[in-house]
Amino acid sequence: MIQPPLPALRAFVEVGRRGGVKDAAAALGVTPGAVSQQVRALELRLGVVLLERLHRGVRLSAEGERLFAALDPGFRQIEDALRPYGGRPGRTNLLTVTTTPSFAATWLAPRLGAFAAVHPDIEVRLLAGVGLADLHGGEADLAIRHGGGDYPGLVSLRLFDPHLVVVASPRRLAEGPPVRRPADCLAHPLLQDRNRRDWSQWAEASGAGASPRWRGGSIFADDALLIRAAIAGQGLAVVRDIYAADELAAGRLVRVLANTAPTADAYFLVARPDRMAQRSVKAFRDWLLGAVEAFAAAN
């Protein structure tokens, strides 16, 4: 059998890494059409279908998954071997990380500059969405997920166990009715999460009892938006402590009461087992665990 040309194999591997033809083309510095042609030529040479063409994008077929799993480690070894000799940084070191919009906006994005400072050769592409990225299918290298930690076929590392806290702008608290006990919060406008759950959960844990009044107020689809509304003085907000930490430290928000409530889910760093061993993933994992440890010590 005549061996497939290396550029075709390289194009296919990049599609597997990036989860799409367009991103693979950007990583290789070529057009999406060129990548598609290379992968199609590889399919014809091997006599198998490697990509399933969907209405919006592509995904690896079962045969494509097997070939990608066999080829990717070899290409990464080549990249690591050539890295000391220079080249264009960022072309082969794009690391895709996915997480929730709230965590991305309030905690992760403000800290990514610290990672870039110590790993300038690794470019991070941060994806934020409420849906779960398909790590098995290569949509992302790493995910920071909010859940129970049960992710079949994936490795997970526990990062945070957040608690609900009540926050407000200093002006709102100074000029509004005094808040000395949980029930006093009802004298202020309550800013609600998208499911109207957090205030009721916090009130129950604080001994304030159940009441329909805990579910009233403006609703925000994302906790980062809810925090912005609280900073603007629109009312009191119940948010996860890790989301509000930077705003509390800067004085843009203040804790209203000492009462907290545990949340049912934690934050986990999640990846495929084979990805955890890759250099860029390991670098991000080690940096993130260090950042989490430093954050916990400061808070």
From TrEMBL:
Cited SUPFAM superfamilies: Periplasmic binding protein-like II, Winged helix' DNA-binding domain
Keywords of this entry: DNA-binding, Transcription, Transcription regulation
Coiled-coil segments: none
Annotated Gene3D superfamilies: Periplasmic binding protein-like II, Winged helix-like DNA-binding domain superfamily/Winged helix DNA-binding domain
Domain called HTH lysR-type: residue spans: 4-61
Molecular function terms, GO-annotated: DNA-binding transcription factor activity; sequence-specific DNA binding
Cytoplasm among keywords: no
Gene Ontology biological process terms in this record: DNA-templated transcription
Domain of life: Bacteria
PROSITE patterns (alphabetical): HTH_LYSR
InterPro entries: LysR-type_TF_proteobact-type, LysR_HTH_N, LysR_subst-bd, WH-like_DNA-bd_sf, WH_DNA-bd_sf
Pfam family, any one: LysR_substrate
Family: Belongs to the LysR transcriptional regulatory family.
The name this protein goes by in its record: LysR family glycine cleavage system transcriptional activator
Organism placement in taxonomy: Bacteria, Pseudomonadati, Pseudomonadota, Alphaproteobacteria, Hyphomicrobiales
